[in-house]
Amino acid sequence: MKLALYLPNFRDTVTIKELEDLTTLAEELDFDSVWTLDRIVVPEASDRQELQNSFGYMDGFPNALPVTSHGQWFQGWPLLPWLAAKTKKVRIGMSITDTPYRAPGVLATECATIDHLSDGRLNVGVGSGWMPEEFAAASAAHIYPKKHKHVRETIEVMQGVWNNDLFEYHGEFADFDRCGFGAKPLQDPLPIWFSGLKSAERSAKRIAKYNLAGWIGIQDDPEGLADWRKAIDAELQELGRSIDEIEMSSMIWFVITDEDADQTPAGKGTNLLVGSEKQITEMLKRYQEAGLTMPMLWPPFTDVPVSKTLDDLKRLKEDIMPKVEAS
């Protein structure tokens, strides 16, 4: 089981030094990857729990974000070249790039450049987004009803740009004649990860059709993860492929507590990786059996200082993972 760190760049208060300390430790501990979060705005309506949708489309969650509209967070995409310069071996990516906020051709060339800056360590995570208010702030409100089509076209443009000396595309959101787009990525293929939080079938079809590298969920329990894995495997098998060819990941809140935590099932609000060392060890064993290949450890939005997360990451790597790997 690989380990990934989901940087807490989306918080009411966080410093670049804290993000750097977390990244440095992840590399020292031989984590597979470090990921940032894509967030452009927090609407004031969120402070009143009056967003149009619940957080991340997740059942049981409020129509609000966990960070206030006055929060001082950092946008995830500009952090990627900075991460490339600050690290030497850990992979980097953003979970998840909401493609409707970006022009497909521009995103394709930016990814190729960052792959060079990182010496071939970029993961490209893509998804459709979920918050209409953010679409409006990104001047993409007109795309919201067709956001899934935008993801499809973006994947096709990226793969076309990366794999051809000259490339043309004629779709709804990208329409251009044959062009050269500069340097190709160092990685061949440059891995694309897909995040689809609502429909296992849609996610499975995207991963299978476009030969994607992995899937990223959010707060999935072992049983739910097994369902996603089964759906994706069925689509891959039709193409003569295996689920073992892709990475299965999920963004999961992570804190080690002194005493056992309440892990009573509460949908995606369950404290899956929030608990004592024993609880987290047992949960990671269950995840391993369910087919999770890379938990994306997500420090909570509030009440847990970065200094605590630094200690928890060390304990996870040095004390917990040997027990998981031995099971």
Summary?
The protein is α/β, with parallel strands linked by helices and 327 residues long. Helices cover 38% and strands 17% of the residues.
Task: Give structural attributes.
eight-stranded parallel beta barrel; alpha/beta; single chain; two-stranded antiparallel ribbon; TIM Barrel; 327 residues; globular
Structure, described:
The chain has ten helices and eleven strands. The protein has 327 residues and is an alpha/beta fold. The strands form two sheets. The chain has an eight-stranded parallel β-barrel, surrounded by six helices. Strand 3, helix 4 and strand 4 form a beta-alpha-beta unit. Helix 4 packs across helix 6, helix 7 crosses helix 8 and helix 9 packs across helix 10. The model has no long low-confidence stretch (mean pLDDT 95).
Radius of gyration of CA atoms, rounded to a whole number: 19 Å
Shape: globular
The H/E string reads EHEHHEHEHHEEEHEHEEHEH
CATH-scheme architecture of the largest domain: Alpha-Beta Barrel
Distance between the termini: 12 Å
* Fourth-tier CATH superfamily name of the largest domain: Luciferase-like domain
Helix tally? 10
Strand order within the widest beta sheet: 1-2-3-4-7-8-9-11
Q: Supply the number of structural domains.
A: 2
Largest sheet features: 8 strands, parallel, barrel
Average the pLDDT over all residues and give the rounded result. 95
Quantity of strands, as a count: 11
What is the highest CATH level, the class of the largest domain?
A: Alpha Beta
The portion of residues assigned to helices is 25-40%
